[in-house]
């Protein structure tokens, strides 16, 4: 009889069955697709697009607010905002209530870019859900929103346990 490891009573680890892994894989595929399309057609990175889209939604925001909305690393947002400023897509002004903060907004060129990419983004969304019924698409988006809300709760709970201030921002549906 062959030597066997003693049974632990735990099912074998199935990475493909782990929700975070599956969503991360899907997100990476979608970001790769976006990077190729937006880079080739508009000359922007996915991060530049996400920041532009966030400003398109919010109108004006600080870099920190954009990072919270899009769940991005603040240092990456700052570097990318700097590139967008240099390219003339974003402008910076003083915060009305806090002289230490800067408010970001899209320039006319940035708004034009945002509108062109938003139309292309909607086309990509149509392609992604091709063959899905409206009911299935709506159900998927509703479940994704529920899962996002639950993940936000769990992140905030973990932050509180670790003595950190929660950073989650409530996002209106249709944020990009």
Topology, pairings included?
Elements: H1 19-42, H2 46-58, E1 60-61, H3 63-70, H4 74-87, E2 90-94, E3 102-106, H5 108-128, H6 134-161
Antiparallel strand pairs: 1-3, 2-3
Helix pairs in contact: 2-3, 2-5, 3-4
Care to describe what's here?
The protein has a three-stranded antiparallel β-sheet. Helix content is 61%, strand content 7%. The chain is globular. α2 packs across α3 (63-70). It is mostly helical and 176 residues long. It is built from six helices and three strands. The chain folds into two domains: 22-128, Winged helix-like DNA-binding domain superfamily/Winged helix DNA-binding domain (Arc Repressor Mutant, subunit A), CATH 1.10.10; 132-164. The longest helix has 28 residues, at 134-161.
Features:
disordered C terminus, Arc Repressor Mutant, subunit A, 176 residues, 6 helices, three-stranded antiparallel beta sheet, 2 domains, globular, mainly alpha
